[in-house]
Amino acid sequence: MTRSETRRPTRSRRFDALLSPLETFLATEAASGLLLVACAAVAVLWVHSPAAPAYEALKQLPIAIEIGDRRLEEPFVLWVNDLLMAIFFFFVGLEIKRELLVGELAGWKRASLPLAAALGGMLAPAAIYGVLNFGGPGSPGWGIPMATDIAFAVGVLALLGGRVPPPLKVFLLALAIIDDLGAILVIAVFYSETLHSGFLALAAATWLLLAAYGNYGGARASVFLILGALLWFFTFESGVHATVAGVLAAFTVPIAHRIDAKNVANELRRQLAGGFERIEMTIGEAARALLEARSPLHRFEHALAPWVAYGIMPLFALLNAGVPLLGEGGGAGFSMVTLGVFLGLLIGKPLGILGACWLAERAGLARLPEGVDYGSLTGAGFLAGIGFTMSLFIAALAFPAGSQLDEAKIGVLAASVAAAVLGLLLLARRLAPAAGPAPRPKARGT
Fold it and tell me: Is the separation of the CB atoms in 118 and 182 below 8 Å?
């Protein structure tokens, strides 16, 4: 074997990571999902241990920022939920914009089925919760079972490896992204406080500056950071939940590339006419050129991905998943809030997704992707019932404190575990095992 042949697998891995962003994204989300599980488990164990007071002290640790005469002081858990989660929503907004413009949601033909599934998967859980809690003290929590946790859902799907057809992965990812957009709209409209017009006007003016800068091709991260911080502060003070600022800022980041794709293709075609060593050098130059020519949206998304996946989301899980599973006094953990969240996620999600897909197909508005049937769609529907991050976040908005928040968290945790197990078992039985390598032919004479 020559030296160039031994280097070939390394080069292939680099180009797989460069030219297959969907696979890279799925790998990141899968690893993040496992870390989220670990942090949630640590939080639950911590709150049931003798060190439980330290857990509460960490959450309530006061942190203040002073600028002149103005002082902003919040407990640590609220800084995470309001500020760090705004960065998370900025990252989600970048994903949504990319998928809408150039990804799996670009155009009605691609987006119709996951759009229908997402709508059904949001309305059915909210309806189940609403029926069980109508007119009661738990009624504000109707938005809790509407959301899907991308990291957990993709992480569980990754356990099946090559048995999962790519169209099913894309469908679940697109569904979860639209689901996130729906959750963001619900937060902005239904879970914001009394609005303050002055700060709302300042937030709008700041967003217009960001939009103008991005529209004219602005690409400096420092400008987006400064204006984004101002947008977050004005949004926070306006009464609209501050995380909405992250999504609004993300929609202003340009996705246009700074290179002419046709010129690059012609140059590569000319370079590839040389010998193998020339081709190998060209591949390295092309990789560097493509990395440098990425749009601001792709650069920001790539830079934020590890911080969000391995920092912000695990920290959020650690500070928000710690809840006494039996409630205070050992029996206050179950209620109609718990039941509404549990049934909404575990039953409402798959029913809503399957029903909406069936209606969209019957109406001729969409069709199932090749290799995907209603059996595998049912398994994916259960995986969409893993609410976790977004559901816990909405629960904290619906019930700022008290026993109802703990009851909602118990419903989220229980439903997420049950949905993960059922979805995994259904897909494992439905999907054929991945084909192994073909047997090597026997040599003649043996």
Answer: yes
CB 129 within 8 Å of CB 146? no
In residues, how long is the chain?
446
User: pLDDT for 324-354, tens place per residue?
Assistant: 776 544 444 568 999 999 999 999 999 999 9
φ/ψ of residue 326, rounded to 5: -105, 0
Question: Which of helix, strand or coil describes residue 154?
Answer: helix
pLDDT tens figures, 53-62: 999 999 999 9
For residues 392-409, b (16+ Cβ closer than 10 Å) or e, as one string? Answer: bbbbbbbbeeebbbbbbb
Which residue in the block uniquely carries the two structure tokens 């179950």? 334
pTM, to two decimals? 0.72
CA separation, residue 154 to residues 157, 235, 384 (Å): 5, 32, 9
Q: Determine whether domain 21-192+241-257+294-430 maps to CATH 1.10.10.1400.
A: no
Structure tokens at 272: 């590839």
Opening angle at CA 37, ends 33 and 39, nearest 5 = 115
Cα of first residue to Cα of last residue in the chain, in angstroms, is 26
- By the 8 A CB rule, do 134 and 19 touch? no
